[in-house]
Amino acid sequence: MRRLLPYPLLFVALLIFWLLLNGFSRGQFLIGLVVSLVAGWIMTALEPEKNHLRSMPTMLALLWEVVVDIIRSNIAVARLVLSPRKTRTPGFVTIPLDLENKGGLAILSCIITATPGTAWVDYNAARHELTIHVLDLEEEQYWRDSIKSRYEKPLIAIFGKASSPEPGKEKSA
């Protein structure tokens, strides 16, 4: 059964989304089944790592922090864009990260990109450096400190600092 449905929750979610988007009929149900099965098999080829979430209270606190930040950022960007006299100083900020967990990095990229006025530009895995673009960059250090304390620190508490090594493969130092 595990071979046919390696990711059963993904299968069910994709099938439901397919039917919600395309309407329910026998034909759409069959197409949705095929698409969901193939997507599950493709995910197996990608070999996603297993994450062990460590702190539910930290997850909820981070979610709240992100929602508040997105609302504040929407207001700030609207003021910036609608203000005729305010000049923008866009720029790039490079941030050294301690977080190496792929799941945590993916969530960090979603948080940064979902927050208006910022965009994830690059992550250099060799140097563990994140580059973001900021719409109105006044102080680079503020952005470094903000990303590290508001997002990276809770993500390390949730996922751990580094990706867990696969069984039989030790992470080299």
TrEMBL record:
Topology in the lipid bilayer:
Multi-pass membrane protein
Per the record, the domain of life is: Bacteria
Q: Which InterPro entries match?
A: Cation_antiport_E (IPR002758)
Q: Where in the cell is it found?
A: Cell membrane
Bilayer-crossing regions: 6-24, 29-46, 58-82
- One Pfam family linked to the record: MNHE
Tell me the keywords, alphabetical order: Cell membrane, Membrane, Transmembrane, Transmembrane helix
What family does the database annotate?
Belongs to the CPA3 antiporters (TC 2.A.63) subunit E family.
Name of the protein described by the UniProt record: Na+/H+ antiporter subunit E
Name the species this protein comes from.
Daeguia caeni
